[in-house]
């Protein structure tokens, strides 16, 4: 019994194997592909790699930052007691002074299995340069990401890696491990329970919300 295997060229360093089987042959091993999860498209369609594939000679390139989601702020110079409302249904945060809305921003809250709690809370801790000790990435000895977006209590650490906590700029804790901070917003609930805001909005909220500021989280 004969097998004929046809090999075609390479696409960006990844070998593509097409097997043409003539009756009864065992299937070849599936092709493996490098992780391009950190690739970005530039404004003209060019590809930037924040982390080149293993073995690649491509140098690291600065990826153009994704556009920041739209947010509003009119609170500079406005007096009145601050308060914040987070709406999980429409994934929006609203900042008030004296009961008047002076800021709003899209958010990304807890995904399935990591629900953001609802209720009445307050800002109990502030840290502009907070680093998570619970969530982040597993990286190798050179600092390259091996497993992304992990929780240390749920995701097993691969041998030879270490945990690297996720940066959470302008962090304001409201309860337990949950707080507001600048982070990535994919357009839906995707966090481990925290409330991610656009960086500019997180900075404004941080600047104008002191310790004890009421935070209401509704669904």
Assembly category: single chain
- How many helices does DSSP assign? 1
Tally of structural domains = 3
Distance between the ends: 64 Å
Judged by helices, strands and strand pairing, the structural class is: mainly beta
Please explain how this structure is put together.
This protein is mostly beta strands. The protein has three domains: 33 residues, no CATH class; 33 residues, no CATH class; 147 residues, Beta Barrel (L,D-transpeptidase catalytic domain-like). It is built from one helix and 15 strands; from the N terminus they run E-E-E-E-E-E-E-E-E-E-E-E-E-E-H-E. The radius of gyration is 23 Å and the shape is elongated.
SSE layout and pairing:
Elements: E1 4-11, E2 14-20, E3 39-41, E4 47-49, E5 72-73, E6 82-87, E7 92-97, E8 100-106, E9 119-122, E10 125-139, E11 145-151, E12 162-175, E13 178-182, E14 195-197, H1 199-208, E15 214-218
Parallel strand pairs: 6-15, 13-14
Antiparallel strand pairs: 1-2, 3-4, 5-8, 6-7, 7-8, 9-15, 10-11, 10-12, 12-13
Quick synopsis:
The protein has 219 residues and is mainly beta. It has one helix at 199-208, and strands at 4-11, 14-20, 39-41, 47-49, 72-73, 82-87, 92-97, 100-106, 119-122, 125-139, 145-151, 162-175, 178-182, 195-197, 214-218.
Provide key terms for this protein:
L,D-transpeptidase catalytic domain-like; 1 helix; mainly beta; 5-stranded mixed sheet; disordered N terminus; 3 domains; 15 strands; 6-stranded mixed sheet; 43% strand; 219 residues
């Amino acid at each position: 019994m004969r097998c004929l295997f046809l090999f075609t060229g390479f696409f960006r360093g990844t070998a593509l194997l097409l097997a043409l089987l003539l009756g009864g042959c065992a299937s070849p091993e599936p092709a493996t592909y490098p992780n391009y999860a950190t690739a970005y498209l530039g404004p003209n369609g060019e590809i930037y790699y924040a982390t080149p594939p293993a073995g690649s000679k491509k140098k690291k390139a600065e990826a153009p930052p994704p556009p920041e989601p739209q947010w509003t702020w009119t609170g500079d110079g406005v007096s009145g007691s601050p308060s914040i409302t987070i709406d999980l249904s429409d994934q929006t945060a609203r900042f008030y002074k004296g009961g008047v809305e002076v800021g709003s921003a899209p958010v990304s809250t807890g995904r399935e299995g990591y629900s953001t709690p609802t209720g009445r809370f307050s800002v109990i801790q502030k840290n502009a340069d907070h680093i998570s000790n619970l969530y982040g990435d597993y990286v190798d000895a050179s600092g390259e990401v091996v497993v992304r977006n992990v929780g240390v209590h749920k995701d097993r650490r691969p041998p030879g890696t270490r945990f690297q906590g996720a940066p959470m700029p302008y962090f304001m804790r409201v309860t337990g491990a949950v707080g507001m901070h600048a982070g990535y917003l994919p357009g839906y609930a995707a966090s481990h329970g925290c409330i991610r805001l656009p960086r500019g909005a997180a900075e404004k909220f941080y600047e104008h919300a002191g310790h004890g500021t009421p935070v209401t989280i509704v669904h």
